[in-house]
Specification:
Length: 290
């Protein structure tokens, strides 16, 4: 498919060995010539105005990178469509606020533009390439901002199973990123460090907070704590029922809220142990069905 566009100016950088996305990005940027590099994904769709809306932000010399808005296309046949739509709407709201305060903590690799001079070749083991590049840009003294009028559109994973392992990968890769920038966040000396810890790190640690809350409320003999305990049990049972409905009917109706919440936190829990108590993960993507 790509070869058919060579006559229209597309350069094909094919390598017979599968080396991963990080290696592909390093190679592509090394042969690029433009002042601005635009990153995308193969499964993402854009309208004709996206690049114009993204690059206009580079008139501000303090801007080193621009991330657009990610939209999930509705498809009732996909088990993760509702949850992913809600999640990315929330992420967009967060990024919009962060951008007004200074810089977002991580761009979306599906729609991300940077000044080429700020590109840092990534170690081949890096999985979270968009977050790595975002932090490198901020580390260099520039901002990464959010452009809500430029959007990318894609379908979510078809199954909860596929989405679960994508989120496991993201969480594990997030801890890897922390090890790449040890002096940037600990101790937190800047407002950006506070943003990153509150937006990203606390999110990855939520499963441990939830487990602590469940165990604590189970053992404290107080009416308020016992009520909290049974409220949590009811929520998790609702998530379990949602999972059963999803498996049998292909949808969970309103129960997708507790189901998606628990799925995401279970993935973060698994991702923590994958990073710290195993050999880690390959930079090669495990392809999800789209």
């Amino acid at each position: 498919i790509v070869q058919s566009y060579v006559k229209k100016g597309v350069t094909v950088l094919h390598r017979p060995a599968r080396q991963g996305k990080t290696a592909a990005l390093n190679l592509a940027v090394s042969v690029s010539t433009g002042e601005i590099v635009f990153f995308s994904d193969a499964n993402t769709m854009y309208d004709s105005t996206v690049i114009q809306k993204m690059v206009r932000n580079f008139h501000d010399p303090s801007v080193g990178g621009v991330s657009g808005r990610k939209i999930i296309l509705k498809d009732s046949e996909r088990q993760t469509s509702q949850g992913e739509t809600a999640f990315w709407n929330y992420e967009g709201w967060l990024k919009s606020g962060e951008s007004r305060l200074g810089s977002i903590v991580g761009a979306d690799g599906e729609i991300f533009a940077i000044r080429r001079v700020l590109f840092s070749p990534m170690p081949p083991t890096v999985v979270h390439d968009d977050m790595f590049l975002s932090l490198k840009i901020v580390e260099a003294g520039f901002r990464v901002i959010y452009e809500g009028e430029a959007s990318s559109a894609e379908y979510s994973s078809k199954t909860l199973h596929d989405e679960f392992f994508l989120k496991v990968r993201y969480a594990s890769a997030g801890y890897q990123i922390l090890s790449e920038f040890p002096g940037m966040f600990f101790p937190p000396k800047t407002f950006f460090a506070f943003q990153f810890i509150s937006h990203k790190l606390f999110r990855w640690l939520i499963p441990f907070f939830l487990l602590t809350m469940l165990l604590t409320s189970a053992v404290i003999p107080s009416l308020s704590y016992q009520s909290l305990f049974w409220g949590q049990v009811s929520f998790y049972l609702a998530a379990l029922l949602g999972w059963v409905l999803m498996k049998r009917l292909g949808h969970a109706n309103l129960l997708y809220v507790p189901l998606y919440f628990c799925m995401g936190n279970a993935a973060a829990f698994y991702g923590f142990f994958l990073h710290f108590f195993s050999a880690g993960q390959s930079s090669l993507w495990r392809k999800a069905e789209r």
